[in-house]
């Protein structure tokens, strides 16, 4: 396992003649994974919209004018019903997303912890993506039975500054570090198609691969360009770029579960098959990602049949965590107020989208 990849080396892999790249990635894939098994996760937006951050890609940022309807935190019962549906349709993992900058101790976080306990007791892997978290919050999630925490680096450190001004790259790395102090696995990846260069893509992979240990799972999202967001006019990323990105991720992070994430509605079956061949071994299933469309489960199951793929059972890579009930918890809420950074530099297109939203609202 190498943690010292250079950007030049990664770029060289990314730009290899495609047949060499595919062959190398597929060979490495087979050394650590069964190429016919794909882990299937279902996303659940437990708290939608109204987010204070300015992520240029995100339809849930309050400052942009999109069609997303904001919702309060879902109830534990609603989440349980959705998790059972996901399980019956073949998912082994539920990934709960909240449009938060960071987690705050209090009744809402307690409710999320209860959701984690409830889903873990259904014998499904539980993942959360709730924004920045402290070490204590990571421990509390771990005690509740969390299997994975998703926190993406999203791009290279350099390009991150062109997309988000309300937090810094180091905040992301610090949260990942906090998760690493527990037994919870790390899920971290990014987005392509935001206008970044191939060098930025390589830079992101260098940052991910140099984490030690490397993330257990790495989502590769193709930007879903949503009207009203600063990136609304980005052209869909080419399937060739997606295949190259998946293959390069597989080569530099041989053990990680590479997740073919947002953007699958734009991809043909042939395109997706090439991504699986290149080392992708996980998808998000269900007709919705967090707020945008995703292929129908039945279509995905047909594709699996066609390609001879099978959904992976839960807890194959790591044993199921135990759930500690709230009253026996070792970690109490500390009510910390961590100083996550707020660089607040100006990103022109983010400012323009914010002004356009103000104009549309008045
Ligand atoms: N608020 C938390 C955070 O930002 O970490 C969790 C939810 S956030 C929606 C999770 C991830 O979704 C982001 O890091 C980004 O990679 C992905 N994402 C958001 N909007 C997207 C879009 N339009 N296209 C592709 N991926 C997107
Ligand atoms: C990830 O990397 N992709 C998922 C999950 N982690 C949380 C989210 C994709 C969101 C796409 C835009 C939306 O549906 O709002
Ligand atoms: Fe908020 Fe996460 Fe969307 Fe950024 S990506 S605006 S932090 S929900």
Q: Can you walk through the features of this model?
A:
The chain is an alpha/beta fold and 362 residues long. The protein has a single domain, classed as Aldolase class I (TIM Barrel, Alpha-Beta Barrel), CATH 3.20.20. The chain has helices at 7-14, 18-32, 76-88, 107-120, 135-144, 157-160, 169-180, 198-209, 239-252, 269-277, 297-307, 348-361, and strands at 37-47, 93-98, 125-129, 148-150, 185-187, 190-192, 217-222, 257-260, 280-285, 310-311. Strands 1, 2, 3, 4, 5, 6, 7, 8, 9 and 10 form a ten-stranded parallel β-sheet that branches. Strand 6 (190-192), helix 8 and strand 7 (217-222) form a beta-alpha-beta unit. Helix 3 packs parallel to helix 4.
How are the secondary structure elements laid out?
Layout: H1 7-14, H2 18-32, E1 37-47, H3 76-88, E2 93-98, H4 107-120, E3 125-129, H5 135-144, E4 148-150, H6 157-160, H7 169-180, E5 185-187, E6 190-192, H8 198-209, E7 217-222, H9 239-252, E8 257-260, H10 269-277, E9 280-285, H11 297-307, E10 310-311, H12 348-361
Parallel strand pairs: 1-2, 1-9, 1-10, 2-3, 3-4, 4-5, 6-7, 7-8, 8-9
The structure holds S-adenosylmethionine (SAM), 6-(5-methyl-2-OXO-imidazolidin-4-yl)-hexanoic acid and iron/sulfur cluster (SF4).
Subunit structure: Homodimer.
EC number: 2.8.1.6
Enzyme class: transferase
Question: Keywords for this structure?
Answer:
362 residues; alpha/beta; TIM Barrel; binds S-adenosylmethionine; binds 6-(5-methyl-2-OXO-imidazolidin-4-yl)-hexanoic acid; binds iron/sulfur cluster
